[in-house]
Amino acid sequence: MNRQEIINKIREIFGATNEKFELYKTAEGVEFRIDALVVGTDIYVITPEGELPAADGEVVLEDGTKVMVKEGKIDELMLPEMTTEEMADAELADGTKITNKEDGDFAEGQMLYVVDAEGNEVMAPEGEHTTKSGIVIVVDAEGKITGVKYPDTAGEGSLEEQSKDKMAQATLIDGTIVETEGDLMVGADLYIITEEGRQPAPTGEHETEDGKIVVVEDGKIVEIKEKEAEVEIEVEMMETFANALETLNNEIKALRKENEELKNKFSKFAAEPAAEKIYDKKGAYVEMLKEQQFSKLEQLAALRRALK
User: Fold this and answer.
1) What is the CB neighbour count within 10 angstroms for residue 180?
2) What are phi and psi of 299, to 5 degrees?
3) DSSP code of residue 2
4) What tens digit of pLDDT does each residue of 153-171 get?
5) pTM: predicted TM-score of the whole model, two decimal places
6) Do 155 and 105 form a contact (C-beta atoms < 8 A)?
7) What does the alpha-carbon distance between residue 121 and residue 88 come to, in Å, rounded to a whole number?
8) Contact 43, 59 (CB under 8 A)
9) What share of the chain is helix, strand, coil (3-state, %, to 5)?
């Protein structure tokens, strides 16, 4: 049993069954009892302590009705404005009737319908539809409005402008500009831009600056693949050889310097009076190190020849 039924039951118990009233709420949830929503009727506010005459002032009901209260009675009523939303209907220049079957004006994202000779509303065909008032409505293949352009005002543009917006362009590695009507994808027609205008791209592979390989047959994209990353082995090899050679050259220079120092010491030693012969093994050791370094060079050169 709801609140209204409970109150009616209480009034029935107390013998007040011949009085009829309604409960009204404000947006804040405050409840009022009003016998009839007309000027001069008593208005009471429902409180935990019971019903009390409403205070003077404005009461806004949840449906938007404004009630001016004075001395516990309705002094003035202001009903909310009743707005009737209607579907947008229009006639094309050829007399065909169109509608969006929705409230409000034609807008992007709505479906557009044409009324046929039998009065049936069928999906509008793709293209531009111009009404007698000059409104241009652009519809896609699914019958959806993708643009509305009013006379002498900025709008969503025409199909031609839309197709330009949807053009995908790319630049080939030779500087040639290519484009598709829509996204760059398999199945799309690929065109090249030349001084003579736009022409179908020739059959073959076309590499873009961003590393895509676009495969074309009879002007249509049949495959798009990413260019494989080329490891510059030759450059890495040259750098490796250069570093190795620099290291060996530095070692050879150090050995030569050390050898010169040993020669100078030996010359000084030879000029001294004869004495007990002492063998200098360091010279032989230096020669052995030199042979080892040159052997490394030969091995490095052989490796390089093998990799070519």
Assistant:
1) 21
2) -65, -40
3) -
4) 544 444 444 444 557 888 9
5) 0.28
6) no
7) 13
8) yes
9) 30, 35, 35
